[in-house]
Amino acid sequence: MLLPVTVLLRRADAVEVIGAALTARAAGLGHRRIAVWLGVPAGTVRGWLRRWGSRLEAVRVHFVLVARLAGVDRAVPKALGSPWRDVLVALGAATAAVTARFGTSGVVGPLTAWQVAAASSGDGFSRRVGRWVP
Length: 134
What we know:
Number of domains: 1
Order of helices and strands: HHHHHEEH
Number of helices: 6
Structural class: mainly alpha
Largest sheet: 2 strands, antiparallel
């Protein structure tokens, strides 16, 4: 079955919910506060953050490559001193490059950064985060 980029294979939560948790972590929140805010079990959020936390550099590089491949003459985003924030900046650059090239409208509405993340990862966002293969 072909899934839209708003949902992830083998995940009960939408890509935007997982993305919100990762964004909140970059802002300095812990897994318990994020879980309460999103209405998701704390263990689930902790699992997302642990998986991503151990692979931040690979994910950042992936998003920088997406930005370079989709965009013309895109500068590499500057590091912000936090691996979590660096991933978000790279995702922002990838989203800007994709929307500049293909437009801001997706099949299910406006294209979001987390949809770009899911679509560009070949489902690595949910299943293969350990091997993050674009």
